[in-house]
């Protein structure tokens, strides 16, 4: 037998497969070049405006003209990227070309007359041509939202954008003065509170650069670097591949901001590795779904939602990212502890060290990714240059990358541009449509009325209001993206929460987190279903496993909304106290869910074991509940209650251990 056969092959990821989806067109070469050109134009427009370059000739565009131009380019890209139906999966039909011609004409007209539109207040009284073009734009944006976001986005946007036209005919609770459809159209398209409101402004001025940075990071080898780093650090531990999954998928999710695309990208690598050491298919799919979903709220790159939130709150993005640190740590810590307990209970070992990449070689190959991340964070936190920081970080990344083995050739660079164009088009199509919801509610002034009505319906009980908000967020999250669901609820629900005395930042975070939970909660659980397709297992079983694994995130939002110390909004001592008790509490809850407590071992099976798990879970939840804040719980009292329940669980385990203890099959 040869030496090569005896030597075990080292696990090392050199590239990550592209996610396969039927949502995008397979474009012929001519249209790929057209998409690349439009992507380049949009990037040039964004860089010129954000850096205030004046096209190097001193010509500074009005913000409204910039918004018209970049939105027009983005909408054209939507109709190239997304087919209207299944009949044009690989070509751009004549009607899409006709729509793009109309878009070019309309938005060129708006851009040309940008000064007049502002100075003459066309959003209130526009000439006939402006009215007709606004009506046509309204229809085009609705269709763009349908293609990029699906029928649920279309239906909700259609209803709320038309709401001002029939508001007087509704029950008094949600009634308002009706407005003629032509006046609604010019408010939507020619004003600054609807189509060009907060969602598109944030997209064009802040999110744009971070999307470019995230995609560049993936195409320059960032994904393989983080996966190899995770294998080097965690692969040898018990349940190692699953721990690798939460580390690497969390980082990849932070870069991409999309749970489903992240599952389809990293799942084919992580799920087989988990299966190899004994994890069940369902459990492996659940781990991947939870890890990929958690990446959406993991700093420093949190997707579009965090930027929109910062704009709503009129605070910096850095403030939002800092506030998200502890909840994301609690989420991933809970996942880690559950995986560790599951592996310990079933005696699942890690991968052999000789098969894992060496930490030194991983850093040698990808040190510059760490440098780029440090540069980005330094510019965000220290220099407070949120808009330009990702562009500088991307430029640094691309320059250094060209002197490494991962350097981009022309084909790979064109793939990068194509992916960039798809992502920009998708997000722009959704955010443009969602802006119409804001416009429909703003022009009638109904948002404040709804907030007061919600407080009244909840009987001014904050807990009931939060439960109502959680359910609404979850239901909207089923049919919409996290960003779309968040924007709607930030207008309608968050004012009700803040009027009840809750912290504004905590209220916004609460809504975002619960909107995200639909990705891992049956009956829909899109991220879990995507992972199930990779693991070749029943989608519902994968969804149930993902829901159990992500259980801690169902309660964490209630904790930080009751006491914002978990969002680092308290004093240093309050923050340290809340974080330390929350971490221990999360570890106990994770032990209860998986039936294994460190220091005690397997909690057994049967009725007695169920009671033990319940006692441990109550102990963990009590300990994790923040002291002070809205309810003013005393930390000493909470600690005493937690200790009593935990001691009771341990004593009961000692008493019942001989009768409940059964051998565990390591291969289970």
Verbal overview:
With 668 residues, the protein is mainly α. Among the domains are: 29-197, no CATH class; 571-668, no CATH class. 70% of the residues lie in helices and 1% in strands. It has 30 helices and 2 strands. Helix 2 crosses helix 9. The chain is globular and about 85 Å long. The two termini are 34 Å apart. The model is unreliable at 1-8 and 659-668 (pLDDT under 50).
Which characteristics define this entry?
1% strand; disordered N terminus; 668 residues; mainly alpha
Summed up:
This protein has 668 residues and is mainly α.
Helix tally equals 30
Q: Please report the total strand number as a whole number.
A: 2
Distance between the termini: 34 Å
Report the helical percentage: over 70%
Average of per-residue pLDDT values:
85
Over the alpha carbons, how many angstroms does the gyration radius reach? 26 Å
Structural class: mainly alpha
Strand arrangement, major sheet: 1-2
Q: Describe the biggest sheet?
A: 2 strands, antiparallel
Reconstruct the topology from this structure.
Elements: H1 3-6, H2 29-50, H3 63-81, H4 94-112, H5 114-119, H6 128-149, H7 151-166, H8 181-190, H9 198-219, H10 222-234, H11 240-256, H12 259-276, H13 281-294, H14 304-313, H15 317-323, H16 325-345, H17 359-381, H18 389-401, H19 410-444, H20 446-457, H21 462-479, H22 482-492, H23 494-499, H24 504-516, H25 526-535, H26 539-549, H27 552-562, H28 572-594, E1 596-597, E2 601-602, H29 607-624, H30 635-660
Helix pairs in contact: 2-3, 2-9, 2-19, 3-4, 3-19, 4-6, 6-7, 6-8, 6-19, 7-19, 9-11, 9-14, 9-18, 9-19, 10-11, 10-17, 11-12, 11-13, 11-16, 12-13, 12-25, 13-16, 13-25, 13-26, 14-15, 14-22, 16-27, 16-28, 17-18, 19-22, 21-22, 21-24, 22-24, 24-27, 25-26, 28-29, 29-30
